[in-house]
Amino acid sequence: MKTQSAIAAPLAALAALALSSCVDTSQDIHYIPTPEAVVEEMLRLAEIEDGDVLYDLGSGDGRIVIAAARDYGIRAVGIEIDDGLLERARENARAAGVEDLVEFRKQDMFETDLTDVDVLALYLGTTQNLRLRPRIMEQMEPGSQVVSHAFSMGGWQPDVETTVENRKVFKWTVPLEFIDGFPPVLPGDGEAES
Question: Which CATH architecture has domain 36-173?
């Protein structure tokens, strides 16, 4: 006959295993730096104009935000939840001399207001991109740009897909209308050429 403790230990292990399988780890995002050549290509594809505002969701050490401010002279905001990365990003901005153009916020990217964003930079995962996609469509103005390192947006076909240093880079234009899997209706579609 088994003792109570001999039965309890395996039951506790089974309960822990069952609970761990219920935890949603799809939102776990780990910091991996974007290579400088990829940063440059993302910003080039974004077709940045004077007065644009760039947000980088999951901004890590701030390299995309800092490059946008340094190379294009625009205001840029990094959204990050890791305190260590936020401090490193702020130090990097000071070292680059762009602290007056950049801001780094500790904030949940899925709650970030995107209504004033002209360019959105992402290096997340497909799951996170798909979770953000409805927010992008609802809040960003048609004609705004979205660029992503490595990960797509499901049925939202990119305007541009290229490879830099064996890494994919995607660019989308926020459409007037979007139906998953169909070509989006973009600003200027159907307008007569003059």
Answer: 3-Layer(aba) Sandwich (3.40)
